[in-house]
Design brief:
The chain is an alpha/beta fold and 261 residues long. The protein has helices at residues 19-23, 26-36, 38-45, 48-55, 70-77, 89-101, 116-119, 140-152, 167-173, 221-230, and strands at 2-3, 60-63, 81-86, 107-110, 124-129, 154-165, 189-196, 199-205, 211-216, 235-240, 253-259. It contains ten helices and eleven strands. The radius of gyration is 17 Å and the shape is globular. It binds S-adenosylmethionine.
Amino acid sequence: MERDKNNNDGMEKIKNTDHYKAQYQKDFVDKWDELIDWEGRAEGEGAFFINLLKNKGKNKILDLATGTGYHSVTLMSAGFEVHSADGSTEMLHKAWENGRKRNLVLRTIQADWRWLTRDIKERYDAVICLGNSFTHLFAEPDRRKALAEFYAVLKSDGILIIDQRNYDNMLETGYSSKHKYYYAGDRVKAEPVHISDDLVIFEYCFPDQSSYKLNMYPLRKDYCCGLLRGAGFQKITTYGDFQKDYGIKQTDFFIHVAEKQ
Ligand code: SAM
């Protein structure tokens, strides 16, 4: 694996916020559920998001990074009103199919986070951006613009739940993972093939020998919390692998709960 701070020749074109659409091509999207493994994921997450939203009295939810629909379906099945947005039509199509298999009809909205309010007029109790999705934004102005849009689609007492990989660990000590959360499937090898201060490339190798890459901006935890505060969120609570008490070095994923008031 490359650990290259300086030599970014040829990398500039893939450090681009719009690149996610090309990377989530149809055959990768078709394989996504094999990667995340819905049953394994349900075991890892438990009822964390359901309990969090219920305890805070939130019912109308916007899933901003629907992907293949895992959280939209889980929350709808638990009785929440959910709208499912994503910038990728391939993903939304798959999510809709996954909903139908479970007798649910997803209300899908194709929208890029940076221009959310152009397509979304309703306001929500909570918005969720899960599965290490925010990492796809490569420029700081894009991150700030997206968070301002997330803030705008929330009601005045709304909350944003956003998660991220523990990039601090990855940048400082290299990659390690318990493979317990999010990407719970054990048949797919998911590992970074490039790590530098402004680009991480993950490669996903499937049992049929196919492989796909995703480009990510390595968001440091404190930087991410700073962006949330800058967007106007008043209170931020961070969980490590779904626990309130966590060790930074032992954590795979951070979950930030950002409250508007
Ligand atoms: N939340 C799902 C999960 O956990 O399985 C999907 C996660 S996937 C890593 C990231 C998702 O974010 C993709 O479906 C992608 O299309 C979406 N996405 C990335 N950048 C986006 C943007 N700028 N606007 C809207 N959606 C975006």
